[in-house]
Write a structure and sequence with these properties.
Helix content: 25-40%
Distance between the termini: 18 Å
Largest sheet: 6 strands, mixed
Number of helices: 10
Radius of gyration: 19 Å
Shape: globular
Oligomer: single chain
Strand content: 15-25%
Order of helices and strands: HEEEHEEHEHHHHEHEHEEH
Strand order of the largest sheet: 6-7-8-3-9-10
Amino acid sequence: ELVKLTVGDAPTPPQIPSSRDAGEVRLAVRDLRSSGDAPALRGVNLELRSGEIYGIAGVGGNGQSELANALMGIPEAVSGRMEIVGEGDLADFDAARRRALGIAAIPADRYGAALAGPLSIADNFALGDIHSGRYGPFWYLNTRAIEADAAEAVRQFDVQGVRSLKQKAALLSGGNAQKLVIAREFSHPPQLVLAHSPSRGLDVKATEAVRERLRAARDNGAAVLLISEDLDEVMAMADRIGVMSAGRIVAEFSQPADRQAIGQAMVNHV
C-alpha cells in the first residue's frame, strides 16, 4: 500500500528508446561519500555510457542534490572518485577543463546556480566560452560577436520574452531561463550532460522542449545523467534507471521497467 501511495499505479507514457546502442562507459562514480557525522552520500556507485540516458529516481532528500553538486563542480565535501574515463577525476577539473571535455551542466536551481541574474542575456550565454578566447581576451571582449551568437541561440532554442539581449537574465520566466541555460550548455555538442530536475516548474510546452534536447544529445552519442524526483519523467526518459535511497544506488532497472518494483526499491531501504 505504501508503494502504491508513493508512486501511484497510473500507466506511464512509453519511453522513447535511443536510435543507437549504448557505447563505452564515459562516467564512472566509485564509492562517493560525503564527509561529516550525517553524510548525505554513503557510497554511490554508478556507470554512465555514451548514447544513453541514465535516470536516477528516488524520494527527495536521499542524496540526489549532493550527488548533482559533486558532479557539477558545485562545492560539496566528498571522497571517492568521479572518473571521466580516459581523462581523470572530475574533482580535479576546473571550469575550462570541463568545457573542453564537452561537459554540460543543468543545475536544479537555474537562477541561483546556472545563471547570473544581474547580467544580461548575452553575457549569460557567453559565459561558457569566455575562457576559450572565442570572444577575445577577457579584458576586451568582442561584444558584437557575443550578441550575434546569443541572438542565434535565442532564436534556435525559442527563448521567449527577450526584448533585448541586454535585458537581465533574472527577468526571464522559469521556462525561458531554462531554455537559455540549455542553449549555452549545448552551444557546442556535449559529450556528457548532467541534468538535475531540468523540467521542474516548467509548463508542458517548455518541459517537452527540454526533454527533446536531452534525447537529441543522447541520440548524438552523449552520455546523459538525469536526476529527477518526478518518477514519470525518469521512466519516460531513461534507458536505464537507478534508484537512490539513503545516499546510495540501491537498485537498477533496464527498460521497460516495472513502476511498482521501482517504488519498492524507493521505500524499502534505510
